[in-house]
Protein backbone atom coordinates (compact mmCIF):
# COMPACT_ATOMS: atom_id res chain seq x y z
CA UNK A 1 0.00 0.00 0.00
CA UNK A 2 1.33 3.43 -0.88
CA UNK A 3 1.91 5.70 2.07
CA UNK A 4 0.81 9.29 2.05
CA UNK A 5 3.34 11.87 3.19
CA UNK A 6 2.81 15.54 3.95
CA UNK A 7 5.76 17.77 3.12
CA UNK A 8 5.69 21.24 4.68
CA UNK A 9 8.44 23.33 3.14
CA UNK A 10 8.48 26.90 1.86
CA UNK A 11 11.56 26.57 -0.27
CA UNK A 12 10.15 25.39 -3.58
CA UNK A 13 13.39 23.94 -4.86
CA UNK A 14 13.95 21.83 -1.76
CA UNK A 15 10.30 20.78 -1.72
CA UNK A 16 10.56 19.62 -5.33
CA UNK A 17 13.71 17.57 -4.68
CA UNK A 18 12.27 15.82 -1.63
CA UNK A 19 8.92 15.27 -3.27
CA UNK A 20 10.49 13.61 -6.31
CA UNK A 21 12.70 11.39 -4.19
CA UNK A 22 9.76 10.26 -2.05
CA UNK A 23 7.53 9.68 -5.06
CA UNK A 24 10.27 7.55 -6.58
CA UNK A 25 10.02 5.48 -3.42
CA UNK A 26 6.28 5.02 -3.94
CA UNK A 27 4.97 7.68 -1.57
CA UNK A 28 1.99 9.86 -2.39
CA UNK A 29 3.21 13.32 -1.46
CA UNK A 30 1.14 16.41 -0.62
CA UNK A 31 2.95 19.68 -0.07
CA UNK A 32 2.25 22.87 1.78
CA UNK A 33 4.35 25.96 2.47
CA UNK A 34 2.59 27.36 5.54
CA UNK A 35 1.45 26.30 9.00
CA UNK A 36 -2.16 27.05 7.98
CA UNK A 37 -1.86 24.97 4.80
CA UNK A 38 -0.34 22.15 6.82
CA UNK A 39 -3.23 22.14 9.29
CA UNK A 40 -5.77 22.20 6.47
CA UNK A 41 -4.09 19.25 4.74
CA UNK A 42 -3.92 17.31 8.00
CA UNK A 43 -7.63 17.76 8.56
CA UNK A 44 -8.41 16.54 5.04
CA UNK A 45 -6.20 13.45 4.75
CA UNK A 46 -4.62 10.82 6.87
CA UNK A 47 -0.82 10.87 6.60
CA UNK A 48 1.64 8.13 7.37
CA UNK A 49 4.34 10.72 7.99
CA UNK A 50 4.90 14.46 7.95
CA UNK A 51 8.15 16.18 7.02
CA UNK A 52 8.34 19.80 8.05
CA UNK A 53 10.66 22.75 7.84
CA UNK A 54 11.07 24.90 10.96
CA UNK A 55 10.78 28.46 9.70
CA UNK A 56 7.65 28.71 7.60
CA UNK A 57 6.08 31.74 5.97
CA UNK A 58 3.48 32.14 8.69
CA UNK A 59 5.07 30.57 11.74
CA UNK A 60 7.47 28.18 13.39
CA UNK A 61 7.00 24.54 12.43
CA UNK A 62 8.36 23.31 15.75
CA UNK A 63 6.49 25.70 18.04
CA UNK A 64 3.21 24.59 16.53
CA UNK A 65 4.13 20.93 16.54
CA UNK A 66 2.78 20.20 20.01
CA UNK A 67 -0.82 20.71 18.85
CA UNK A 68 -0.27 18.52 15.78
CA UNK A 69 1.19 15.77 17.94
CA UNK A 70 -1.80 15.97 20.24
CA UNK A 71 -4.29 15.64 17.42
CA UNK A 72 -2.33 13.05 15.42
CA UNK A 73 -0.28 11.22 18.04
CA UNK A 74 0.53 8.29 15.78
CA UNK A 75 1.88 10.28 12.86
CA UNK A 76 5.69 10.39 12.88
CA UNK A 77 7.13 13.83 12.19
CA UNK A 78 10.48 14.53 10.61
CA UNK A 79 11.97 17.98 11.11
CA UNK A 80 14.09 19.62 8.44
CA UNK A 81 15.99 22.56 9.80
CA UNK A 82 18.48 25.15 8.69
CA UNK A 83 18.91 26.33 12.29
CA UNK A 84 21.38 23.67 13.10
CA UNK A 85 21.82 24.08 16.80
CA UNK A 86 21.57 21.53 19.55
CA UNK A 87 18.74 23.64 20.89
CA UNK A 88 16.70 23.18 17.68
CA UNK A 89 17.38 19.45 17.72
CA UNK A 90 16.28 19.20 21.33
CA UNK A 91 13.25 21.43 20.78
CA UNK A 92 12.26 19.23 17.86
CA UNK A 93 12.51 15.97 19.72
CA UNK A 94 10.87 17.47 22.81
CA UNK A 95 7.86 18.30 20.70
CA UNK A 96 7.72 14.69 19.59
CA UNK A 97 9.61 14.68 16.33
CA UNK A 98 10.55 11.25 15.10
CA UNK A 99 13.72 12.42 13.42
CA UNK A 100 15.65 15.62 12.97
CA UNK A 101 17.47 16.46 9.75
CA UNK A 102 19.73 19.48 9.66
CA UNK A 103 20.08 21.16 6.29
CA UNK A 104 21.82 20.38 4.06
CA UNK A 105 20.90 16.77 4.47
CA UNK A 106 21.66 13.56 2.66
CA UNK A 107 18.60 12.88 0.50
CA UNK A 108 19.01 9.11 0.59
CA UNK A 109 19.20 9.18 4.33
CA UNK A 110 16.07 11.31 4.53
CA UNK A 111 14.15 8.93 2.29
CA UNK A 112 15.34 5.98 4.34
CA UNK A 113 14.27 7.67 7.58
CA UNK A 114 10.88 8.53 6.10
CA UNK A 115 10.29 4.93 5.16
CA UNK A 116 11.42 3.76 8.54
CA UNK A 117 9.11 6.29 10.18
CA UNK A 118 5.97 5.10 8.41
CA UNK A 119 6.91 1.50 8.98
CA UNK A 120 7.54 1.75 12.66
CA UNK A 121 4.92 4.43 13.20
CA UNK A 122 6.45 4.99 16.50
CA UNK A 123 6.65 8.41 17.94
CA UNK A 124 10.03 8.51 19.53
CA UNK A 125 9.32 10.89 22.31
CA UNK A 126 6.50 11.69 24.62
CA UNK A 127 5.93 15.00 26.33
CA UNK A 128 9.03 16.11 28.04
CA UNK A 129 9.82 19.24 29.94
CA UNK A 130 11.40 22.07 28.06
CA UNK A 131 15.15 21.53 27.91
CA UNK A 132 15.83 24.53 30.12
CA UNK A 133 19.09 26.27 29.69
CA UNK A 134 21.10 23.30 28.55
CA UNK A 135 24.80 23.73 28.26
CA UNK A 136 26.00 25.46 25.16
CA UNK A 137 27.59 23.24 22.57
CA UNK A 138 28.82 25.50 19.85
CA UNK A 139 29.26 24.38 16.27
CA UNK A 140 26.95 23.82 13.34
CA UNK A 141 29.21 21.69 11.18
CA UNK A 142 27.72 18.54 9.71
CA UNK A 143 29.89 16.51 12.06
CA UNK A 144 28.45 18.28 15.10
CA UNK A 145 24.92 17.90 13.72
CA UNK A 146 25.45 14.16 13.80
CA UNK A 147 26.58 14.48 17.40
CA UNK A 148 23.44 16.50 18.30
CA UNK A 149 21.22 13.90 16.72
CA UNK A 150 22.87 11.18 18.75
CA UNK A 151 22.53 13.24 21.92
CA UNK A 152 18.80 13.73 21.36
CA UNK A 153 18.42 9.98 20.93
CA UNK A 154 19.75 9.21 24.37
CA UNK A 155 17.93 11.90 26.37
CA UNK A 156 14.77 9.93 27.02
CA UNK A 157 16.40 6.66 27.95
CA UNK A 158 19.14 5.36 30.20
CA UNK A 159 21.27 3.73 27.52
CA UNK A 160 24.96 3.70 28.31
CA UNK A 161 26.89 6.18 26.20
CA UNK A 162 30.54 5.96 25.24
CA UNK A 163 31.98 9.28 24.10
CA UNK A 164 35.09 9.01 21.98
CA UNK A 165 37.34 11.74 20.71
CA UNK A 166 40.71 13.39 21.05
CA UNK A 167 41.58 15.39 24.11
CA UNK A 168 39.82 18.76 24.21
CA UNK A 169 37.04 17.91 21.75
CA UNK A 170 34.30 18.46 24.34
CA UNK A 171 33.62 14.97 25.68
CA UNK A 172 32.86 16.17 29.18
CA UNK A 173 30.64 18.92 27.83
CA UNK A 174 28.62 16.36 25.87
CA UNK A 175 28.32 14.17 28.95
CA UNK A 176 26.99 17.16 30.90
CA UNK A 177 24.55 17.99 28.11
CA UNK A 178 23.21 14.43 28.14
CA UNK A 179 22.63 14.74 31.86
CA UNK A 180 21.29 18.29 31.97
CA UNK A 181 18.90 17.86 29.04
CA UNK A 182 17.83 14.35 29.95
CA UNK A 183 15.36 12.90 32.37
CA UNK A 184 17.88 12.60 35.18
CA UNK A 185 18.64 16.29 35.29
CA UNK A 186 17.20 16.65 38.78
CA UNK A 187 19.70 14.05 40.02
CA UNK A 188 23.44 14.49 40.49
CA UNK A 189 26.04 14.54 37.72
CA UNK A 190 29.13 12.92 39.13
CA UNK A 191 32.30 13.01 37.05
CA UNK A 192 35.20 10.70 37.85
CA UNK A 193 38.51 10.94 36.09
CA UNK A 194 39.66 7.36 36.40
CA UNK A 195 43.13 8.30 35.15
CA UNK A 196 43.68 10.90 37.85
CA UNK A 197 43.06 8.60 40.82
CA UNK A 198 45.98 6.57 42.13
CA UNK A 199 45.52 2.95 41.11
CA UNK A 200 45.25 1.67 44.66
CA UNK A 201 42.43 4.11 45.47
CA UNK A 202 40.26 3.74 42.41
CA UNK A 203 37.97 1.04 43.76
CA UNK A 204 37.37 2.92 46.95
CA UNK A 205 36.72 6.08 44.89
CA UNK A 206 34.14 4.30 42.76
CA UNK A 207 32.50 2.03 45.29
CA UNK A 208 33.39 3.62 48.61
CA UNK A 209 34.89 1.89 51.62
CA UNK A 210 33.99 0.93 55.12
CA UNK A 211 35.86 2.26 58.10
CA UNK A 212 39.04 0.21 58.61
CA UNK A 213 38.88 -1.41 55.16
CA UNK A 214 42.55 -0.57 54.69
CA UNK A 215 45.27 1.44 56.38
CA UNK A 216 44.14 5.03 56.33
CA UNK A 217 40.43 4.27 55.98
CA UNK A 218 39.59 6.12 59.15
CA UNK A 219 35.93 6.63 58.30
CA UNK A 220 33.29 5.21 55.99
CA UNK A 221 33.46 6.74 52.52
CA UNK A 222 30.62 6.89 50.03
CA UNK A 223 31.88 6.17 46.53
CA UNK A 224 31.02 7.88 43.26
CA UNK A 225 28.49 5.20 42.29
CA UNK A 226 26.43 5.85 45.39
CA UNK A 227 26.89 9.62 45.06
CA UNK A 228 25.46 9.41 41.54
CA UNK A 229 22.35 7.49 42.66
CA UNK A 230 19.38 8.84 40.68
CA UNK A 231 21.69 10.71 38.33
CA UNK A 232 24.58 10.21 35.94
CA UNK A 233 28.03 8.83 36.59
CA UNK A 234 30.54 10.17 34.09
CA UNK A 235 33.55 7.86 33.85
CA UNK A 236 36.24 9.87 32.10
CA UNK A 237 39.49 8.45 30.69
CA UNK A 238 38.00 4.97 30.89
CA UNK A 239 40.83 3.57 28.74
CA UNK A 240 43.24 4.20 31.61
CA UNK A 241 41.33 2.26 34.21
CA UNK A 242 43.32 -0.43 36.06
CA UNK A 243 42.37 -4.05 35.33
CA UNK A 244 41.01 -4.90 38.77
CA UNK A 245 38.78 -1.84 38.78
CA UNK A 246 37.53 -2.78 35.30
CA UNK A 247 36.41 -6.15 36.60
CA UNK A 248 34.58 -4.58 39.53
CA UNK A 249 33.04 -1.95 37.29
CA UNK A 250 31.75 -4.61 34.93
CA UNK A 251 30.25 -6.52 37.82
CA UNK A 252 28.52 -3.36 39.09
CA UNK A 253 27.14 -2.60 35.62
CA UNK A 254 25.84 -6.13 35.20
CA UNK A 255 24.18 -6.37 38.58
CA UNK A 256 23.22 -2.74 39.24
CA UNK A 257 24.72 -3.27 42.69
CA UNK A 258 27.96 -2.30 44.33
CA UNK A 259 29.85 -3.35 47.40
CA UNK A 260 31.98 -0.90 49.38
CA UNK A 261 35.60 -1.95 49.83
CA UNK A 262 35.72 -3.91 53.07
CA UNK A 263 31.93 -4.14 53.16
CA UNK A 264 29.74 -7.20 52.99
CA UNK A 265 26.46 -5.63 51.94
CA UNK A 266 25.41 -5.33 48.29
CA UNK A 267 23.88 -1.91 47.64
CA UNK A 268 21.53 -1.27 44.72
CA UNK A 269 22.38 1.86 42.76
CA UNK A 270 20.39 3.57 40.05
CA UNK A 271 22.87 5.37 37.82
CA UNK A 272 23.16 6.20 34.19
CA UNK A 273 26.65 5.57 32.90
CA UNK A 274 28.32 7.88 30.43
CA UNK A 275 31.94 6.94 29.75
CA UNK A 276 34.60 8.71 27.72
CA UNK A 277 38.08 8.13 26.45
CA UNK A 278 40.54 9.75 24.10
CA UNK A 279 42.24 6.42 23.51
CA UNK A 280 41.48 3.92 20.83
CA UNK A 281 40.09 1.05 22.89
CA UNK A 282 40.43 -1.68 20.26
CA UNK A 283 44.24 -1.98 20.47
CA UNK A 284 43.92 -1.90 24.25
CA UNK A 285 41.52 -4.82 24.04
CA UNK A 286 43.92 -6.63 21.76
CA UNK A 287 46.87 -6.20 24.06
CA UNK A 288 44.77 -7.25 27.03
CA UNK A 289 44.76 -3.97 28.93
CA UNK A 290 41.05 -3.29 28.42
CA UNK A 291 38.35 -5.89 28.99
CA UNK A 292 36.41 -6.73 25.86
CA UNK A 293 33.22 -7.54 27.79
CA UNK A 294 33.40 -4.15 29.52
CA UNK A 295 33.86 -2.48 26.17
CA UNK A 296 30.63 -4.01 24.87
CA UNK A 297 28.83 -3.03 28.06
CA UNK A 298 29.89 0.60 27.66
CA UNK A 299 29.74 0.93 23.90
CA UNK A 300 25.93 0.78 23.67
CA UNK A 301 25.61 4.20 22.05
CA UNK A 302 28.98 5.46 20.83
CA UNK A 303 29.26 9.19 20.19
CA UNK A 304 32.40 10.13 18.31
CA UNK A 305 33.45 13.74 18.63
CA UNK A 306 35.30 14.94 15.56
CA UNK A 307 38.64 16.72 16.00
CA UNK A 308 38.40 20.48 15.50
CA UNK A 309 40.63 20.40 12.40
CA UNK A 310 37.90 18.36 10.65
CA UNK A 311 35.28 21.04 11.31
CA UNK A 312 36.94 24.28 10.35
CA UNK A 313 33.49 25.93 10.05
CA UNK A 314 33.09 25.65 13.80
CA UNK A 315 36.27 27.52 14.65
CA UNK A 316 35.01 31.10 14.22
CA UNK A 317 31.73 30.53 16.12
CA UNK A 318 33.67 28.84 18.92
CA UNK A 319 36.14 31.73 19.03
CA UNK A 320 33.24 34.21 19.30
CA UNK A 321 31.73 32.11 22.05
CA UNK A 322 34.96 32.23 24.06
CA UNK A 323 35.21 35.99 23.51
CA UNK A 324 31.77 36.40 25.02
CA UNK A 325 32.64 34.07 27.84
CA UNK A 326 35.86 35.96 28.57
CA UNK A 327 33.89 39.23 28.69
CA UNK A 328 31.32 37.67 31.02
CA UNK A 329 34.17 36.67 33.29
CA UNK A 330 35.25 40.28 33.56
CA UNK A 331 37.99 40.34 30.91
CA UNK A 332 37.99 43.09 28.27
CA UNK A 333 35.28 42.84 25.60
CA UNK A 334 36.99 42.12 22.26
CA UNK A 335 35.93 41.10 18.81
CA UNK A 336 37.73 39.25 16.04
CA UNK A 337 38.65 40.58 12.61
CA UNK A 338 37.60 38.49 9.59
CA UNK A 339 41.21 37.89 8.72
CA UNK A 340 41.95 36.68 12.24
CA UNK A 341 38.93 34.35 12.14
CA UNK A 342 40.12 32.97 8.82
CA UNK A 343 43.61 32.41 10.15
CA UNK A 344 42.20 30.53 13.13
CA UNK A 345 40.08 28.31 10.93
CA UNK A 346 43.21 27.11 9.15
CA UNK A 347 45.13 25.88 12.18
CA UNK A 348 45.59 22.18 12.93
CA UNK A 349 44.34 22.50 16.54
CA UNK A 350 46.03 19.46 17.94
CA UNK A 351 44.66 20.39 21.35
CA UNK A 352 41.22 20.86 19.76
CA UNK A 353 38.63 23.18 21.33
CA UNK A 354 40.61 23.51 24.54
CA UNK A 355 43.62 24.83 22.62
CA UNK A 356 41.43 27.31 20.74
CA UNK A 357 39.89 28.44 24.01
CA UNK A 358 43.33 29.01 25.55
CA UNK A 359 44.43 30.96 22.53
CA UNK A 360 41.36 33.20 22.55
CA UNK A 361 41.86 34.03 26.23
CA UNK A 362 45.50 34.89 25.57
CA UNK A 363 44.47 37.05 22.62
CA UNK A 364 41.95 38.90 24.79
CA UNK A 365 44.70 39.71 27.26
CA UNK A 366 47.29 40.61 24.65
CA UNK A 367 45.31 42.59 22.08
CA UNK A 368 45.74 46.31 22.54
CA UNK A 369 42.84 47.27 20.29
CA UNK A 370 39.18 46.25 20.64
CA UNK A 371 39.42 44.11 17.57
CA UNK A 372 41.76 41.15 17.73
CA UNK A 373 43.59 41.19 14.41
CA UNK A 374 45.43 38.51 12.49
CA UNK A 375 48.75 39.94 13.62
CA UNK A 376 47.93 39.30 17.28
CA UNK A 377 46.81 35.76 16.47
CA UNK A 378 49.94 35.15 14.45
CA UNK A 379 52.13 36.38 17.29
CA UNK A 380 50.47 33.95 19.69
CA UNK A 381 50.68 31.10 17.22
CA UNK A 382 54.36 31.83 16.59
CA UNK A 383 54.95 31.77 20.30
CA UNK A 384 52.90 28.66 20.87
CA UNK A 385 54.10 25.19 21.70
CA UNK A 386 53.02 23.94 18.30
CA UNK A 387 55.81 25.74 16.52
CA UNK A 388 58.39 24.85 19.04
CA UNK A 389 57.17 21.27 19.06
CA UNK A 390 57.49 21.13 15.31
CA UNK A 391 61.11 22.12 15.76
CA UNK A 392 61.46 18.61 17.08
CA UNK A 393 60.83 17.29 13.59
CA UNK A 394 64.38 18.24 12.68
CA UNK A 395 66.60 15.23 12.16
CA UNK A 396 68.33 14.76 15.49
CA UNK A 397 71.30 13.11 13.75
CA UNK A 398 71.83 16.22 11.61
CA UNK A 399 71.54 18.45 14.67
CA UNK A 400 74.21 16.49 16.52
CA UNK A 401 76.41 16.56 13.43
CA UNK A 402 76.15 20.38 13.46
CA UNK A 403 77.04 20.54 17.12
CA UNK A 404 80.10 18.35 16.63
CA UNK A 405 81.32 20.61 13.90
CA UNK A 406 81.24 23.47 16.35
CA UNK A 407 82.49 21.80 19.53
CA UNK A 408 84.42 18.74 20.68
CA UNK A 409 82.27 18.47 23.83
CA UNK A 410 85.33 18.14 26.02
CA UNK A 411 83.09 18.99 28.97
CA UNK A 412 81.31 15.64 28.48
CA UNK A 413 77.81 17.07 27.94
CA UNK A 414 76.97 15.59 24.54
CA UNK A 415 74.76 12.84 25.89
CA UNK A 416 72.80 15.19 28.16
CA UNK A 417 72.41 17.79 25.43
CA UNK A 418 71.19 15.23 22.92
CA UNK A 419 68.65 13.85 25.40
CA UNK A 420 67.42 17.36 26.14
CA UNK A 421 67.04 18.01 22.41
CA UNK A 422 64.83 14.95 22.20
CA UNK A 423 62.95 15.58 25.40
CA UNK A 424 61.96 19.15 24.67
CA UNK A 425 59.62 18.43 21.74
CA UNK A 426 58.29 15.32 23.45
CA UNK A 427 57.30 17.30 26.54
CA UNK A 428 55.99 20.19 24.53
CA UNK A 429 53.85 17.94 22.37
CA UNK A 430 52.50 16.21 25.47
CA UNK A 431 51.71 19.53 27.17
CA UNK A 432 50.16 20.98 24.02
CA UNK A 433 48.00 17.90 23.67
CA UNK A 434 46.77 18.08 27.25
CA UNK A 435 46.34 21.86 27.35
CA UNK A 436 49.08 22.15 29.95
CA UNK A 437 47.66 19.49 32.25
CA UNK A 438 50.81 18.12 33.90
CA UNK A 439 49.10 15.11 35.38
CA UNK A 440 47.75 13.98 32.04
CA UNK A 441 51.01 14.81 30.28
CA UNK A 442 52.93 12.73 32.84
CA UNK A 443 50.52 9.86 32.25
CA UNK A 444 50.96 10.08 28.50
CA UNK A 445 54.70 10.13 28.89
CA UNK A 446 54.66 7.31 31.42
CA UNK A 447 56.72 9.27 33.91
CA UNK A 448 56.10 10.48 37.41
CA UNK A 449 54.53 13.93 37.71
CA UNK A 450 57.33 15.20 39.92
CA UNK A 451 59.89 14.00 37.41
CA UNK A 452 58.02 15.87 34.70
CA UNK A 453 57.92 19.01 36.80
CA UNK A 454 61.65 18.81 37.45
CA UNK A 455 62.51 18.18 33.79
CA UNK A 456 60.30 21.08 32.69
CA UNK A 457 62.18 23.34 35.03
CA UNK A 458 65.58 21.96 33.92
CA UNK A 459 64.66 22.42 30.28
CA UNK A 460 63.17 25.83 30.99
CA UNK A 461 59.87 24.94 29.39
CA UNK A 462 57.33 27.58 30.36
CA UNK A 463 54.07 26.02 31.40
CA UNK A 464 51.87 29.04 30.94
CA UNK A 465 52.25 28.78 27.19
CA UNK A 466 50.22 25.64 27.33
CA UNK A 467 47.63 26.39 29.91
CA UNK A 468 44.22 28.00 29.76
CA UNK A 469 43.69 31.72 29.91
N1 LIG B 1 31.35 22.43 21.18
C1 LIG B 1 31.83 23.18 22.18
N2 LIG B 1 31.24 24.35 22.48
C2 LIG B 1 31.71 25.12 23.49
N3 LIG B 1 32.77 24.81 24.24
C3 LIG B 1 33.40 23.65 24.00
C4 LIG B 1 32.96 22.78 22.96
N4 LIG B 1 33.77 21.70 22.94
C5 LIG B 1 34.67 21.88 23.92
N5 LIG B 1 34.46 23.05 24.57
C6 LIG B 1 35.27 23.59 25.68
O1 LIG B 1 36.59 23.13 25.49
C7 LIG B 1 37.15 22.69 26.73
C8 LIG B 1 37.52 21.22 26.62
O2 LIG B 1 36.32 20.45 26.56
P1 LIG B 1 36.15 19.10 27.43
O3 LIG B 1 36.83 19.22 28.76
O4 LIG B 1 34.72 18.72 27.42
O5 LIG B 1 37.02 18.14 26.50
P2 LIG B 1 37.35 16.60 26.66
O6 LIG B 1 37.18 16.00 25.31
O7 LIG B 1 36.57 16.02 27.80
O8 LIG B 1 38.90 16.66 26.99
P3 LIG B 1 39.83 15.57 27.75
O9 LIG B 1 39.79 14.31 26.96
O10 LIG B 1 41.18 16.23 27.70
O11 LIG B 1 39.27 15.43 29.14
C9 LIG B 1 36.13 22.97 27.79
O12 LIG B 1 36.43 24.21 28.40
C10 LIG B 1 34.83 23.03 27.04
O13 LIG B 1 33.93 23.88 27.68
Automatic annotation (TrEMBL):
<comment type="function">
    <text>Member of the two-component regulatory system NtrB/NtrC, which controls expression of the nitrogen-regulated (ntr) genes in response to nitrogen limitation. Phosphorylated NtrC binds directly to DNA and stimulates the formation of open promoter-sigma54-RNA polymerase complexes.</text>
</comment>
<keyword id="KW-0067">ATP-binding</keyword>
<dbReference type="InterPro" id="IPR027417">
    <property type="entry name" value="P-loop_NTPase"/>
</dbReference>
<dbReference type="InterPro" id="IPR003593">
    <property type="entry name" value="AAA+_ATPase"/>
</dbReference>
<keyword id="KW-0805">Transcription regulation</keyword>
<dbReference type="Pfam" id="PF25601">
    <property type="entry name" value="AAA_lid_14"/>
</dbReference>
<keyword id="KW-0547">Nucleotide-binding</keyword>
<dbReference type="InterPro" id="IPR025943">
    <property type="entry name" value="Sigma_54_int_dom_ATP-bd_2"/>
</dbReference>
<dbReference type="GO" id="GO:0005524">
    <property type="term" value="F:ATP binding"/>
</dbReference>
<protein>
    <recommendedName>
        <fullName>DNA-binding transcriptional regulator NtrC</fullName>
    </recommendedName>
</protein>
<dbReference type="InterPro" id="IPR011006">
    <property type="entry name" value="CheY-like_superfamily"/>
</dbReference>
<keyword id="KW-0963">Cytoplasm</keyword>
<dbReference type="Pfam" id="PF02954">
    <property type="entry name" value="HTH_8"/>
</dbReference>
<keyword id="KW-0678">Repressor</keyword>
<keyword id="KW-0597">Phosphoprotein</keyword>
<dbReference type="Pfam" id="PF00158">
    <property type="entry name" value="Sigma54_activat"/>
</dbReference>
<feature type="domain" description="Sigma-54 factor interaction">
    <location>
        <begin position="137"/>
        <end position="365"/>
    </location>
</feature>
<keyword id="KW-0902">Two-component regulatory system</keyword>
<feature type="modified residue" description="4-aspartylphosphate">
    <location>
        <position position="53"/>
    </location>
</feature>
<keyword id="KW-0238">DNA-binding</keyword>
<dbReference type="GO" id="GO:0000160">
    <property type="term" value="P:phosphorelay signal transduction system"/>
</dbReference>
<dbReference type="InterPro" id="IPR058031">
    <property type="entry name" value="AAA_lid_NorR"/>
</dbReference>
<dbReference type="InterPro" id="IPR002078">
    <property type="entry name" value="Sigma_54_int"/>
</dbReference>
<keyword id="KW-0010">Activator</keyword>
<dbReference type="InterPro" id="IPR002197">
    <property type="entry name" value="HTH_Fis"/>
</dbReference>
<keyword id="KW-0535">Nitrogen fixation</keyword>
<keyword id="KW-0804">Transcription</keyword>
<dbReference type="Pfam" id="PF00072">
    <property type="entry name" value="Response_reg"/>
</dbReference>
<dbReference type="InterPro" id="IPR001789">
    <property type="entry name" value="Sig_transdc_resp-reg_receiver"/>
</dbReference>
<dbReference type="GO" id="GO:0006355">
    <property type="term" value="P:regulation of DNA-templated transcription"/>
</dbReference>
<dbReference type="InterPro" id="IPR025662">
    <property type="entry name" value="Sigma_54_int_dom_ATP-bd_1"/>
</dbReference>
<feature type="domain" description="Response regulatory">
    <location>
        <begin position="4"/>
        <end position="118"/>
    </location>
</feature>
<dbReference type="GO" id="GO:0005737">
    <property type="term" value="C:cytoplasm"/>
</dbReference>
<dbReference type="GO" id="GO:0043565">
    <property type="term" value="F:sequence-specific DNA binding"/>
</dbReference>
<dbReference type="InterPro" id="IPR009057">
    <property type="entry name" value="Homeodomain-like_sf"/>
</dbReference>
